[in-house]
Amino acid sequence: MRVLGVEGTAWCASAAVHDTETDETFIESDAYEPESGGIHPREAAEHMGEAIPRVVETAVSHADGDIDAVAFSKGPGLGPCLRVAGTAARALAGTLDVPLVGVNHMVAHLEIGRHEAEFDSPVCLNASGANAHLLGFHDGRYRVLGETMDTGVGNAIDKFTRHLGWSHPGGPKVEAAAKDGEYVDLPYVVKGMDFSFSGLMSAAKQAVDDVSTSEASGGPSEHRSDDGTPVEDVCFSLQEQIFAMLTEVSERALSLTGSDELVLGGGVGQNARLREMLEKMCEQRGAAFYAPEARFLRDNAGMIAVLGAEMARAGDTVPIADSAIDPNFRPDEVPVSWRENESVAVGHGVSAAGLSDPRRGAEAVVDLQDDEVVKRRIPKGYRHPELDANLRRDRTVLEARLLNEARKAGVPTPLVHDIDVPEATLRLQHVGDADLSEALTVDRARELGDLLARLHSEELVHGDPTTQNVRVGDRLFLIDFGLGYHSGHPEDHAMDLHVFEGSVEGTATDPEPLCRAFEAGYAETGEETVLERLAEIRGRGRYQ
Ligand SMILES: C[C@@H](O)[C@H](NC(=O)OP(=O)(O)OC[C@H]1O[C@@H](n2cnc3c(N)ncnc32)[C@H](O)[C@@H]1O)C(=O)O
Ligand SMILES: [Fe+2]
Asked: How far is the CA of 207 from the centre of ligand 2 (A)?
């Protein structure tokens, strides 16, 4: 079978032909390059209007007109661009009299890696321009295990370079500038498997602004000053922070799902430092890692044609009348017709808190000694040594402090027997006999809701309350406060709830009653505003 793919979600007008017999993919692309600033939707759509017919013609003639189906990016993306590419795809399917396939662009970014690596059920990290998320496959659907709480990763980097006056796209320029940089401390924000870039980006711009104000007459190529931060140091550190955040949440997702395969997708995946970090992390935990070649990472119609072929084979085609584009098409809305009903399931190779298989813990090695647990935050080879030392120290100290404060707030936690800060090691009381991930019930979900409400009423935030960070005994115990902090803000409290529900939705067959009970438990003692904020976070328009 030969499938023609059409891609036109934002900047890349592209057509491709995938031949399922030979597994070869021919791609023809034409990039829109804004003269100044970022991507303008109207200009980008004009570019699509000119370039799509051209790239389609090249691809069709490459296949000698021998095409069995037409697949196109149905969304997400910029409406005006999607419309142009969608119209072209519909017209082509009509003219050739072949079926039409509507592909989710984000799922295509990840399926291309799975297809090439021949992995069964990997965790997928998408690092693209307008998005950033972790997907796992469970019970016939992609589940969003974690995602950005504000902008996509590429857009965050591009906004920073726009601030510097550099042309679009900024990602490759930051990568080049980072080669001569040294580490400076910048914010690092992960919440469970979610993460955000806005604080980090403001700090980066601030650091550079200090430089440019004192260099006002120095011209754009001169970035150094005596008291400011050299721009290459900011670029270097930006990469170190952002990619370490993405790698950390990927590792957490591997740990939570028990998967030992990771694939990368999206344009930012072209960055060698990101790939290096992911590769090192996987190597350290004995997982397999795959990143497709660059032409399949950045936006391209090849990935649309490859997934389109699988969908067409599964009979997943769409009548022209029902083929409307969807600018907000989320990957978890896609009915996955082309995969067997396999799952990345919780429990798979994951022992209780990683106890019998210490390698599996996301962050720490945990050893059982009599009735005590020795938890050591091991150095992570993928992180910059300074960042690594800071994170291990800060999290160890915070964890010890917050475990005690939480207990005082009436939330059961293990007693802290001893702390060794230089070794980032805690000796803790052994509590419970299973993880909540192995023993989640409606009643326990409710009990946990109540515990988090109590924690929040004392202005404490857990930071990572997934089902793996709750122990089950005669009652529930909260463990692993390493991402915790003090805050009385409803947004921070709501994020705790969001993280828990994300871990349930990513792994439970029927998450709905569990989440409802959890929220009911929270509502008994917790603040109504937090639950309202939770609903808002869920529906928040992200990815600007
Ligand atoms: C919806 C769709 O239009 C969108 N696609 C998209 O944004 O294009 P993509 O090719 O996946 O990613 C482009 C981004 O990838 C970044 N990028 C490219 N090369 C890079 C590099 N070497 N280092 C860091 N970022 C890089 C660019 O700066 C830009 O932000 C998406 O997938 O989110
Ligand atoms: Fe993309």
From this structure: 29
Contact 133, 148 (CB under 8 A): yes
pLDDT for the residue 351: 36
Q: Give me the domain span that covers residue 277.
A: 119-294
What sign results for the dihedral spanned by CA atoms 294, 106, 244, 38?
positive
pTM over 0.90: yes
Structure token pair of residue 184: 């400076």
Please report the pLDDT score of residue 461 as a whole number. 97
* Burial (0-12, 13-18, 19+ Cβ within 10 Å), 423: exposed
Residues 156 and 290 in one domain: yes
As a whole number, the mean pLDDT across the chain is 91
Ligand 1 proximity of 158 Cβ (cutoff 6 Å): yes
The total number of structural domains in the chain stands at 4
CA distances from residue 145 to 119, 138, 160 in whole angstroms, order as listed: 18, 11, 27
Same domain, 149 and 187: yes
**pLDDT tens per residue across span 198-246:** 999 999 999 998 744 444 433 344 444 445 799 999 999 999 999 999 9
CATH code assigned at 205:
3.30.420.40
Q: Could you tell me if 57 and 26 are in contact, meaning their C-beta atoms sit under 8 angstroms apart?
A: no
Confirm whether residue 299 is marked as ligand binding: yes
- Same domain for 320 and 404, yes or no, is no
370 CB-contact burial (10 Å; exposed 0-12 / middle 13-18 / buried 19+)? exposed
- pLDDT digit string, tens, across residues 465-520: 999 899 999 999 999 999 999 999 999 999 999 999 988 987 788 999 999 999 99
Residue nearest to atom 30 of ligand 1 (CA): 154
CA-nearest of 43, 178, 9, 28 to 170 is: 178
